[in-house]
From TrEMBL:
InterPro entries: CTDL_fold (IPR016187), Sulfatase_Mod_Factor_Kinase (IPR051043), SUMF_dom (IPR005532), SUMF_sf (IPR042095). This is Hercynine oxygenase. Gene3D superfamilies: paralog of FGE (formylglycine-generating enzyme). Residues 9-251 form the Sulfatase-modifying factor enzyme-like domain. The lineage of its organism: Bacteria, Bacillati, Chloroflexota, Chloroflexia, Herpetosiphonales. Pfam families: FGE-sulfatase.
Length: 258
């Protein structure tokens, strides 16, 4: 029987640096012409702005069914409906867990932290974009061109989930896999307009009563067209909601070395 540490993904170290986050205002109309909708459809990605990110580590792949099953077994919490039981089918062990609410994802992070003595958490949306973009403004983790052979999206014609790590050739500059397509991923961040500021309440675990309680999701999924998998695309969902297209990955903070 595998130990919990054996089920943890590899983590990629991401040094302190600047991410140029979002899409320039002048490009919003171009996005509308290229992908449909109106300029306002993409306005939440603007303005583009610089954000300094402290060093952190991000899981190379999302949390799998096998790892999440350990949390369910020890906690007795609700299992994802798509398992059709309290444990996932053996053939789905290495697939990303889906049908997980934000609250459940955070609770799983807390439990894993105590089990492996590591302060695991969800990444912020700024960290997520830094992991995907690296030190430039690439549109996808591998570059600027959409390529259905590099990700699991609608145009890939797979028609369903892929195991984690199925597209190693599409790794981000820091070696992170699966940041485009396959599943949407929860982040720690509340829905708020740009510019991103970590001290404006959007990273509060318990938001103010008047705050928008929806949390940001990133990455697109297998049922979406390619433009949903762009590094800058933002979606949001209430923390108690879940879908068969949404999972999460782990992160933790690192000490800066300079």
């Amino acid at each position: 029987m595998k130990q919990i540490r054996d089920l943890l993904p590899k983590f990629c170290s991401i040094p302190r640096g600047i991410v140029l986050m979002g899409t320039p205002n002048e490009q919003l109309s171009d996005l509308a012409r290229q992908f449909g909708g109106t300029r306002e459809s993409y306005a939440e990605e603007a303005p583009q702005h610089s954000v300094e990110i402290a060093a952190f580590a991000m899981a190379q792949v999302p949390v799998t069914n096998a790892l999440y099953a350990e949390w369910i077994k020890h906690s007795g919490q609700r299992a994802p409906i798509v398992w059709h039981g309290s444990q996932p089918p053996a053939e789905l062990a290495n697939y990303p867990v889906v049908d997980v609410t934000w609250d459940e994802a955070v609770a799983c992070c807390d439990w894993l932290s105590s089990e492996v003595n590591l302060a695991l958490r969800l990444p912020s949306e700024a960290e997520w974009e830094r992991a995907a973009r690296g030190d430039d403004t690439r549109i996808y983790p591998w570059g600027d061109q959409a390529d259905p052979t590099m990700m699991n999206i609608k145009e890939s014609m797979r028609g369903g989930l892929a195991p984690v790590g199925s597209y190693p050739q599409a790794a981000s500059p820091f070696g992170v896999y699966d940041l485009a397509g396959n599943i949407w991923e929860w982040t720690s961040s509340l829905q708020k307009s740009y510019p991103y500021r970590p001290d404006d309440g959007r990273e509060a675990r318990q938001p103010a009563p008047e705050a928008d309680r929806r949390r940001i999701m990133r990455g697109g999924c297998w049922g979406n067209p390619s433009h949903f998998a762009r590094n800058t695309c933002r979606f949001r969902l209430h923390p108690e909601r879940s879908t068969h297209l949404l999972g999460f990955r782990l992160a933790y903070s690192l000490l800066d070395t300079d």
